[in-house]
Amino acid sequence: MENVITNNKNAAVAKATIPVIEIKDLHLSFGKNEVLKGVNLTVKKGENLVILGKSGSGKSITIKCIVGLIQVDKGEINVFGTDITKLDNTELNKTRVRIGFLFQNAALYDSMSVRDNLGFVLKRHSVELSNNEVEEQIKDILESVGLIEAIDKMPSELSGGMRKRIGLARTLILKPEIILYDEPTTGLDTITSREISELVVEIQKKYKTTSIIITHDMACAKFTGNRLMIIRDGVIYAEGTYDELEKSDDEWVRSFFL
Fold first, then answer.
1. Range of the domain at 193
2. How far is it, in rounded angstroms, from Cα 44 to Cα 28?
3. What Pfam families would the database entry show (predicted)?
4. pLDDT averaged over consecutive 10-residue blocks of the chain (258 residues)?
């Protein structure tokens, strides 16, 4: 009996340590411009991984590849243990439902109220829900991002920070296991950026999400990231915690922290 218990524990530990996302030797070119030249990375369950890099280094392109928005030239993208580069559209869409993507501009429908923006996504993927259930879930998720009072507002009536929060609410409403953040604090003032960073961490804790955060904002990187990677010349150039990379012997790596 003791051996059975021990084996079960070992199996549970092994399962917990399997990466939720694992990218192997990822290559991508646009014409003669080779953007990704062999990117390798893993993200563990429940981890917030921050990816840093200069503009045009391929940070945002990498996470777009993870949801199949861009097709790669070579390499594997294993999500939940399956290489998504080999999936057909039907199988890929099933995986996408488990992944939330927060775009830089929040990508709200300008002609719809906040309620309708959230309801549209929910009804599209959860057709069995009643109108009352949809309304309840909309209100619950708005409470989570602290914007229940904005339920009847139009996107044009929202500040930049509010738009980010509503965009995040729309991402969260399908209860994704993975969230990909593309520059979540870009264009925001210091105080609002801090609030968004705090919300990212709150979501990680409350919903047990696994996330990749693309950012230029070092305050955001420090606050949200359990681990950081820096991409350079199409490959992962450095990896570690914020403190480790800040004290790196590599002058180029340290330049991000000045």
1. 19-109+179-255
2. 24
3. ABC_tran
4. 48 60 98 96 96 94 95 96 95 94 85 95 84 94 95 95 93 94 94 95 95 97 98 96 97 95
